[in-house]
C-alpha cells in the first residue's frame, strides 16, 4: 500500500477504480483517520492498493446521509487521533511488546534453614501457552536468555499449553535446552489440567523437568539442601499442602510452586513456607497507567504481579512468557524473574 499526500482535503473516501464502493465501516474509519491527518498536515490522502485507488474527493458516500455525515465530521475531529493512537498501541502490543522479554532481578533474604544453601540464584518462568501460535523461535529465545543468567535452579509455574497438547513434545524439546546447575522443577497450571495433564507431565519429565504434584523434593544446590514443593492447580486440580509437606522438618522452610497466586492467603498460615512462586495472571497482559490490569483471572485477582510480603511468606507473581485469548501485551512485557537469594538461616550465613 502506498500513501501519497498532496492537494487540499475534502471529506470522503471512495474507490475510483473498479467502480465498487468501499464497505461502510472501512469508509468511516478511513474518514476519521483522514480528518485527523488533514488537521495536522493540511493535505489529502490518496491510498493506492493493488486493486483500487482510494482518495478523498468532493463526491460523497451514497450510504451516508447528510445528518450522519455532519455527525461523523464532528466526531472525526475528536476521535481521529485516539483511533490512530489506539491502532498504534495495538500494533505495538501485538507485534513488539509481547516478545520484549524483560529480566526482572530481585535480591531477597529468606530464612530457609540451616541445611539450605547460604546463597543461590533461581529463575522462574511460566504461562508459555505454546498453542495456538506455536512460536518455537520465541520460546528458544527465552531459553537462551535464561541460560545466560547462569542459574542454580529454574522453577516453572504452569500453563505450558492453552488447550491443545498435541505438540507438547516439540515444546518440551525446547525446554530441554535449559541448563541450570541443579535442575528444573515445575508445577501444573489450570490449562494443563484442562488439556491433558498426564501427557504434558510425561513430555516435560522426559525433557529433564521434575514435575511436583502435591509433593516435595530435596535439591542439592549451591552447597546446601533446598526443599522445593509443588501443588496442583487451585482452579482445576486439588492442591494438597498437607500431603506435600509430609516429612518436612520443623527447622526447614520450603519454596512452593503453585500456579494461582491467590492461594497464598491459605499457605501463609503455615510458617514452614518461605517463598511461593506463582504465575497465572500474566500481569493482566494489558495494563493502564495509574490503574493496573484491565482483566484478571479467577484465583489471580488479589496479587497481580511482582513481590508481596504476607507475614512470614514471600510471594512472587510472574507476568509469564506467552499470551492467551488476545495475543497482545501493553505496559506489561513478558518476564523472566531472576532471584539472588541470601539464606539468613544458613549455618554459615
Question: Could you explain how this protein is built, in words?
Answer:
The protein is α/β, with parallel strands linked by helices and 349 residues long. It folds into 2 domains: 2-95, no CATH class; 102-343, Metallo-dependent phosphatases (Purple Acid Phosphatase, chain A, domain 2), CATH 3.60.21.10. Helices cover 27% and strands 25% of the residues. It has 8 helices and 18 strands. The strands form 4 sheets. It has a 6-stranded mixed beta sheet with strand order 5-18-6-7-8-9. Helix 3 packs parallel to helix 4 and helix 4 (168-175) packs parallel to helix 6 (197-206). The relative contact order is 0.15. Mean pLDDT is 82; it is low at 1-29, 35-42, 44-64 and 79-94.
Amino acid at each position: 500500500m502506498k500513501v501519497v499526500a498532496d492537494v487540499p482535503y475534502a471529506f470522503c473516501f471512495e474507490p475510483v477504480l473498479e467502480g465498487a464502493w468501499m464497505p461502510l465501516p472501512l469508509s468511516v474509519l478511513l474518514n476519521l483517520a483522514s480528518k485527523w491527518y488533514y488537521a495536522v498536515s493540511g493535505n489529502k490522502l490518496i491510498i493506492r492498493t493493488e486493486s483500487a485507488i482510494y482518495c478523498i474527493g468532493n463526491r460523497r458516500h451514497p450510504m451516508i446521509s447528510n445528518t450522519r455525515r455532519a455527525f461523523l465530521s464532528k466526531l472525526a475531529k475528536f476521535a481521529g487521533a485516539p483511533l490512530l493512537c489506539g491502532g498504534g498501541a495495538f500494533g505495538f502490543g501485538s507485534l513488539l511488546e509481547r516478545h520484549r522479554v524483560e529480566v526482572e532481578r530481585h535480591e531477597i533474604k529468606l530464612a530457609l534453614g540451616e541445611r539450605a544453601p547460604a546463597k543461590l540464584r533461581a529463575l522462574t518462568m511460566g504461562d508459555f501457552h505454546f498453542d495456538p501460535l506455536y512460536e518455537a523461535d520465541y520460546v528458544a529465545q527465552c531459553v537462551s536468555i535464561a541460560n545466560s543468567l547462569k542459574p542454580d535452579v529454574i522453577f516453572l509455574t504452569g500453563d505450558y499449553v492453552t488447550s491443545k497438547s498435541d505438540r507438547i513434545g516439540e515444546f518440551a524439546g525446547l525446554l530441554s535446552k535449559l541448563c541450570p546447575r541443579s535442575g528444573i522443577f515445575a508445577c501444573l497450571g489450570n490449562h494443563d489440567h484442562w488439556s491433558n495433564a498426564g501427557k504434558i507431565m510425561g513430555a516435560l519429565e522426559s525433557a529433564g523437568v521434575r514435575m511436583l504434584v502435591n509433593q516435595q523434593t530435596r535439591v542439592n544446590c549451591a552447597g546446601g539442601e533446598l526443599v522445593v514443593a509443588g501443588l496442583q492447580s487451585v482452579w482445576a486440580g486439588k492442591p494438597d499442602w498437607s500431603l506435600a509437606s509430609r516429612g518436612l522438618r520443623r527447622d526447614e522452610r520450603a519454596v512452593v510452586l503453585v500456579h494461582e497466586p491467590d492461594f497464598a492467603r491459605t499457605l501463609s498460615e503455615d510458617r514452614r513456607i518461605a517463598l511461593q512462586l506463582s504465575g497465572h495472571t500474566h500481569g493482566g497482559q494489558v495494563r493502564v497507567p495509574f490503574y493496573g490490569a484491565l482483566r484478571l483471572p479467577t484465583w489471580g485477582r488479589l496479587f497481580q504481579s511482582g513481590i508481596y510480603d504476607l507475614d512470614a511468606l514471600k510471594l512472587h507473581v510472574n507476568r509469564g512468557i506467552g499470551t492467551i485469548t488476545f495475543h497482545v501485551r501493553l505496559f506489561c512485557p513478558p518476564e523472566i524473574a531472576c532471584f539472588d537469594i541470601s539464606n539468613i538461616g544458613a549455618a554459615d550465613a
